Amino acid sequence: MEKVTALKDKGNAALQAGKFDEAIQFYTEAITLDSSNHVLYSNRSAAYAKAGKYSQALEDAEKTVQLKPDWGKGYSRKGSALAYLGRIDESIKAYEEGLVHEPDNAQLKEGLHGVKTQHGGNKGMSNPFLTPDLFIKLRADPRTRAYLDDPDYVKLVQDLQTNPNSLGNRLNDTRVLTTLSVLLGLNIETPGDDDMEMSPPPPKKEASSRPTQKPQPKQEKMEEDLSPEKVQALKEKDLGNQAYKKKNFEEALKHYNKAIELDSSDITYLNNIAAVYFEQKEYQKCIEQCEKAIEVGRENRADFKLIAKAFTRIGNAHKKLGDLRSAKTAYEKSMSEFRTPEIKALLSEVEKKIKEEERKAYIDPVKAEEEKEKGNELFKNGDYATAMKHYTEAIKRNPDDPKYYSNRAACYTKLAAFDLGLKDCEKCVELDPKFIKGWIRKGKILQGMQQHSKAISAYQKALELDSTNAEALEGYRSCTMAVNSNPEEVRKRAMADPEVQAIMRDPAMRVILEQMQNDPKALQDHLKNPEIAAKIQKLLESGLIAIH
Known about the structure:
This protein has about 550 residues and is mainly alpha-helical. Helix content is about 70%, strand content about 0%.
């Protein structure tokens, strides 16, 4: 039982930290050891709900009710999961059944009222973000009050008001889940709630003379419990947010700075000032404010998400300033505080840009020529493997020069790595279609691969550039003889190609081929049509036709 308790406590800690999958794993391990413990199923139901896995949350809630039919918490879990699944009538029934067992259970009453109010008995889930006086309700609830200090959160809620279909893509955001809980009148325990079950409730005892222990207050303080300075600071921050949304940045700064004067322990005010500086393109000031925010946040044990936000904004500011490496460091620190897909995407983007900058910074045509000369010397001496390494370095130093690819292709050919050599030749002629040596080398590699028809096409390209080139003429004649030596085999192989079959079945192409045979000059006219030229080229490559 000690191991079960330890696993349960680890699950509770993970749930409080927002690590829902870890919490589920710990609770599952505990359930394996003690499958009759209703508290474990209840806690795992909460973790599933937090992770947006409402079907699994419902299964665990039903198991909780089965194990402990007179415990209101199980019915609250069940009603909440059913509401999120849109099964409103069943949700209402679950809350009402729980109240039969615990008529004074405030959580059950709140959940039942919320579901009835929001849905009016409808079976389809309406858009809870269209609730009247939405921001007043969020400000009044301690679970969402602090979120409203963040302009990004306010924008998120406004987006969900106008585009409710995007809700499904944002259920991994704990702020959205908490906001839904408030708007729907539900209460899936958030990390730090004092009603997180740490052990099964003790059996009822007869009244005794011992005084009852007063329940511990919730961690969150209602506004009326705050000092007058903190209350006034919140008001200044709200005024600042209003000015920020109107892009009245100087007015926003005035209110945020006033809020800091009244309450210097809140990271949010500094984060908001940094957001203003970022909008004003005062990126260095933005970074300085974020650094102050992180310092204040650590001193006052602020939510790690707020610290992560400050690091992210530092990264964004560095990126705007062109300092990609500092941006990368800031994003990595943000990820260490709180991992989100958005930050991961920003980090990947900046890493890609850094890699591209490093590639460009490495380019040096002079050193490329030096490497090529070293490769040439080794090639002459027959050390093709080492020569290839120097040609590779030359390519890195100057990746737009085709001759380095051609030279490396020669090494690959000597090493019988024809596929790699062919790839280099194709890159070579892509960079410079008039580079005759590239076409000749491509022809030789294809010839070595026994692809004579394709080799003929490569040699023809070379002959178009220089009709007297001896290497191209010799390669062309050699491949033509190889093709013509077994015409039946060539025809059989070519006709197995679906594209060749389609061309040969085309009546128009048959007429054109007949004209070419009777009047060679007709070829020039037909080649002016790009579509016909492509088909003729395909037939040439297949070896079915040849032009003399």
